[in-house]
Amino acid sequence: MSNRRNFVKTGLLAGLSATVLPKAANAEMLLLAPKKGWKHWVWTNPNLKDTEQELAERYQKYYEAGIRGMFFESDSEKHFRAAKAQKLEAHRWIWTMNRGEKSLLDAHPEWYAVNRKGESCADHPPYVNYYRWLCPSREEVKQYLENDYANALKKDYVDGIHLDYVRFCDVILPVNLWDNYKIVQTSELPEYDYCYCPVCKAAYKTEHGIDIDTVQFPEASPSWRLFRYQRVNKVVERLTNVAKSYKKSITAAVFPTPDIAHRNVKQDWVNWNISGVCPMIYHGFYKENVAWIGQAVAEGVKALNGKFPLYAGLYMPDFKNDGEVQQGIENALTNGAAGVSLFGNVSDGVLAALKTASAKIPYRKS
Question: What are phi and psi of 96, to 5 degrees?
Fold first, then answer.
């Protein structure tokens, strides 16, 4: 598991449908729709020390437990092909707007988002050092991302792409993380409110006729908020077109509910046109109990209204035991998820809980 992505254990920042089928008729948009039952996923970072035999045994166990796809955080042809050999889909999981590659920072510091205080992520990253957010308004950024995802999609062993950090920086953190940073975020603080770069300001003025610098409380402006939702939506639209050009699927890890996504990170995933979505319903981050998983799923499924499948993202360290894992999976499936996506240690006990829950809840074809 990536050290950067394994944020809760280190005290870092969260990255962070009865079955519903897409209404779109495009074949590539139907790739992820469950055909015969629940479809479950695993997020993982390939360990290059894994042997072929270890991978074959692991992925066979995954398939037998009901897992049908893998989101791989790095490109390891060995892992991708081993997963595919066991009838699992193998998707490349890539960070989108949060990109802190040194080569990119050095070459294009002007591409990075600017907060309400006028500080750029290029040299003033918020919360943690790896938080380096690109500006979604810049055409050069969109072209860079298109090329990056195309390089992954063109590989024959890659079945699709999985977007992560496809949003703005957290203007509001999950409440469980406030103590880590000694902050209280009951309002949108200027150092975490993005993006106020010249390109965003100019585009907003062109579209809405308003100079955002003249607005006394810009964080309270509905049109400024909508503008920023749409900035990210346009990035997703461009990447969706890239995936469609390769006739491969595109999914995304997103914040747990439409409301939290809007409020915390200015993310509008209900209005995307992708193949499927994995809301990170990490109940411990929000100091909620396991029952909340079902509530969050129900909210997302209702908002999507059958547009594409929702797979409930579950964070294994949030559960006290395998019994709670089973309960969380059942809560997700009974409230309309098309499956779940697991992040953390996928132990034999977790696999047994997944298999039991999937068999217990009748699959409902929409």
Answer: -105, -80
